[in-house]
Amino acid sequence: MDETGNVIYFARFTATFQAPDFDFSHFPLDKQQFNVVVDLLRPETEFVFRPDLERSGLGDTLGEEEWLLKLSDIKVVQHDEMGYDASRFILTFEGERHLNYYVVRILIPSIIIILVSWFTFFLKDYTKRIDLAASNLLLFIAFNFTVANDLPRLGYLTLMDTFMMGTFVVTAMVVLANVWLRRLQNQGRNDLVERIDGIGIWVYPLIYLSAGLVMLYAW
User: Fold this and answer.
1) Residue 198 φ/ψ, nearest 5 degrees
2) Model pTM?
3) Residues 6+ apart with CB under 8 A from 98
């Protein structure tokens, strides 16, 4: 405390921020806001917060493997939780996820599964196409169970949930399409099969590109 009555207060603490306060609908592209709130119990006539902007902020050694954190705002406001006006200090910082993990562990394997499904359109043996597409579907189901523990368990769909579900549906449709083409081939309708195949080779990647753009825009 100096001669004017100002007191410099230093504090260091850890905190757990709970999921209900956040919106994970854009996961893993979401950005979250964290607030550290400190209330004075005595009225403003006795004590008041005055932020020291040079000393307030996030430490250089702050460690968080999943988030990239940056200071957003420091302010002092009033509160009346005790029935009188008192001082409240609010430190706000924002977090963005490190995307490397999700790109390497989820996005790239999903793209490989999508490409394998697309490659089946270049085979002319529809029996082998059915076997390959079905195996790819089972592979995606196993992959989905593997990454399930890395996804948040929420009561609403996230961007990642929509992507995974859409990939699963389209992969299943590829299996059904190949079965249908095999039946047409058995009926001797080879001209129709070739026309459908020619369209499917280009429609399949366009479906994913269009769906990806729609998801990013809608979310």
Assistant:
1) -60, -35
2) 0.69
3) 65, 66, 67, 68
